[in-house]
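Sequence in, structure out. Go.
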Amino acid sequence: MFFILLAILAALLFGAATPISKVLLSSLSPFQLAGLLYLGAALGLLPILLIKRNLRPIWRMDRANRIRLVGAIFFGGICGPLALLFGLKLAAAASVSMWLNLELVATAVLGHFLFRDQLGRYGWLATVGVLGASALLSWDGGVSGIGAGLLVGLACICWGFDNHFTALIDGITPTESTFWKGLVAGSVNLAIGIGTSAYPAAGIITIEALLLGVFSYGASIVLYITAAQHIGATRGQIYFSSAPFWGVGLSVFLLGEPLSGVQLTAAALLIVALFLLTSEGHRHRHTHVSTTHQHWHRHNDNHHDHVHVKYPSWLGHSHAHSHKAATHTHSHWPDLHHRHLHGQQET
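Output:
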């Protein structure tokens, strides 16, 4: 339940970004705003890392984790926000917020075919439902709606890759991976934005964009990564996918956007799809090989029974630790310890 609540809080913070970004795009280009949002995320996390003395050089990571982090930076930090903001310029914030549920579809489908993540019958039905709702929204918006829908869909595919890469990173904490993503991706996009167009925004607009990045991209991403590493990228995305509904509510409240019948129908389809996904279960006998790695964990689960006096069992912490080979049966999700296909052993 704790990690589910983290995913929902992350969704609320991220959902607020869409209507607020719609306002900021009147003063900033998509490249400039994307850069400021992710630099804001990095700036917000830097004091935490300095206080904890937990900012480790990424070049000391092993090759596999460096590749995952580079993939997360490229797809999730550079390409994803750019595609979203270009789409947001073409469509209403409420529609864009609901399109963001395509991230759930992208994460689930990519997980099933590329990242050894389970997707059952209900999962596929939910995927069809989300795609149907997105098609309704695109059709309702005409030509610009189709263009915006394709751009937001591209953003969601990028974030689907990002979700799986970040859920598999170990050796650094979620806060560290988010900091490096924000610093590198934010610097790249802002540099391109300033180099390709004038920067007309007043100081207060810049501060607002940075603060939005601190909360909606910094705190939100850290909370999501922490949840995803324990309940899996696809299941974490189930709860995080409530973010679009927070965005719709704020679009109506802050921007005064009306809700059409098509949007309400699409919202109903999305709710049914989310219910189907949360109805899925996964339980079978499986084998874990021995391994040594580092990630955030607590000792009151089925996989972390090592003993030390520094932390109580209920307190989350991160350090290098080893797992012995084990075979057992329990309900599980595709997290760091369960990335196997049904009936196969852990690798």
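Check: The radius of gyration is 20 Å. The beta strands are 283-288, 291-297, 317-323, 326-331.
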